[in-house]
Amino acid sequence: MAAPEPEAPTTAPSRAKDHSPWNWLLFIPIVVPLIPAFFNGDSPRIFGFPRYYWLQLAWILLGVATTTLVYQMTKKRGNP
Amino acid sequence: MWRDHLTEIIVFSLLFLLVSGMGFVAARWRAPKDMAHLDEWGLGGRSFGGWITWFLVGGDLYTAYTFVAVPALMFGAGAAGFFAVPYTIVIYPMVFLVLIRLWSVSHRHGFVTPADFVRNRFDSPVLALLIAITGIVATMPYIALQLVGIEAVLKTMGVTGDNALARHLPIIIAFAILAAYTYQSGLRAPALIAFVKDTLIYIVILVAIIYLPYKLGGWGDIFAAADAKFDASPNPNDGILLNGNNQLQYVTLALGSALALFLYPHSITGVLASRNRDVIKRNMSALPAYSLLLGLIALLGYMAIAAGVKPLPGATEGSVDNNTIVPLLFDQQFPDWFAGVAYAAIGIGALVPAAIMSIAAANLFTRNIYKEYLKRDASPAQEANVSKITSLVVKVGAVACIVFLDPQFSIDLQLIGGVIILQTLPAVALGLYTRWFHRTGLIVGWAAGMGLGMWMLYQVASPTRKHFGGSAFPLSEFGFDTTKTIYVGIVAVLVNLAVAALVTLAVRAAKVAEGVDGTTPDDYFADEGDPRVTPGTERDADSAREPVA
């Protein structure tokens, strides 16, 4: 899964910051949790949890990681 | 008998009184210069920062009903109930992409409701009225369901009566207090109470997921007990994993519920109350903490199976009320005082969303019915006043639903609510990106989606009922040779979109007037500190603004 390259964000007009290609990454945590083939199974188990349960809980981390990354990459320059 | 639960009742009542006091004090918290304005009463001054937004939106989206009903579903059906987890994962990237634009355009134009936006974007008071009515109708049963959450707790504590009035008296009192402080403090009340509610819930769940598996022999044993229960049951679609028939339903229900949730007026109210775009974006990374909590709460359903909990009888003879399994599990496994804390968490958990929902419904009535059709020159103070009174009416309606009607009726209505709120997706969510759709197309599409959705829900049977038996529509009804099922809302909204597109092409060919778009492209990126447009003069201001490259 190749991350889309930002197209020279420094030269883009500030108003168009929401058109950042980084936003496309947000489709990963929308699509991946909705594919049952990944999680609909029993093994391997972790701490007694079947894969169905631990993997779907792990997608939460996928969502957090993606939104955090996109926020960091698209926030206004100059902000802390 | 209630005497056996005296400690629980005392702890519950004390915590309930504490938050009621907070609700009244909230009017003075971050006190505005002038409370008599809808921005202040209905949106907390549009000033909430990261922490408040986290508690407010978290307390808003994850309701008491969710905390009671999701484990009940896991208890009854198994893996299918876990849809709440993917559902609350996929919603946040969508909000990040879509609702942030609604925040900006609302900040610029002073919109309070999604229907305000639609009216301005598509220049159509009729479409705005349809969006507003859809929002109010979808929200009302959701408020009533919060009472079902409290009732499950009261029932477990033995607080019941011989007749309908005595049985419902505690709920009527609770809602009267809620109505009074919402009237006085507006959105500040649930924002402040949410701190207590969520702290209690996090404590209870952390204790539950560490202590209960230890007592019940570990997670392996808990899943084994659930597996054994579903193996023994005659229902082919339960189990601790999905089967070939319900995977499509699982996925479409998760996606459809996520789309519906962020279109619900109360979620939009929570988002619009935040201070700037960064607050919303950062919260999209922080709010999934609640999804983890919800996933663990869902597993309480399996713990109840492992602990051998038997649900209390339901409203009708011979039925059981699965919603009582979580309160019963706490009653059985926890010391009395801690069970009381857990019950208070659920009870207070009902108040926060109920307050926000009634505020959202009241704002829709005020902005899109009262101001649009009854009193066009209403002042901000009059708007705030009408909203306050409407919020009272909405709560009386919700209580009446529970007292006079079978609670099952509210559950059915909430099921319908999710499907109908989805029908606002083309106008509200897609409208934030494109004005390609024609207002006539959106209206006809809305009607088509509503009609189809209702018909499909009517056709769904369950083992106990012939109609409105759930949201899983068998595809064989459409003539497909399959036993698979699909979520009604997704089909309805796809038909809605298709009809809207076809009618748009047709009326555009017939050169029907499109109306004027009251927004400009850069409105959708506006942030805190950008100049605002006053509602009365926005047209002039728009044309004066420099064109955007």
Automatic annotation (TrEMBL), chain A:
This protein's UniProt keywords: Membrane, Transmembrane, Transmembrane helix
InterPro entries noted in UniProt: DUF3311 (IPR021741)
Annotated transmembrane regions: 21-39, 51-71
The protein's name in its UniProt record: DUF3311 domain-containing protein
UniProtKB/TrEMBL annotation, chain B:
Record's bilayer topology term: Multi-pass membrane protein
Coiled-coil ranges per UniProt: none
Keywords associated with the record: Membrane, Transmembrane, Transmembrane helix, Transport
GO cellular component, one term: plasma membrane
Location within or outside the cell: Membrane
Biased composition (Basic and acidic residues): 537-549
Domain of life: Bacteria
Single GO molecular function: transmembrane transporter activity
Primary localization class, coarse: membrane
Annotated family: Belongs to the sodium:solute symporter (SSF) (TC 2.A.21) family.
Entry protein name: Sodium:solute symporter
Species the sequence originates in: Micromonospora acroterricola
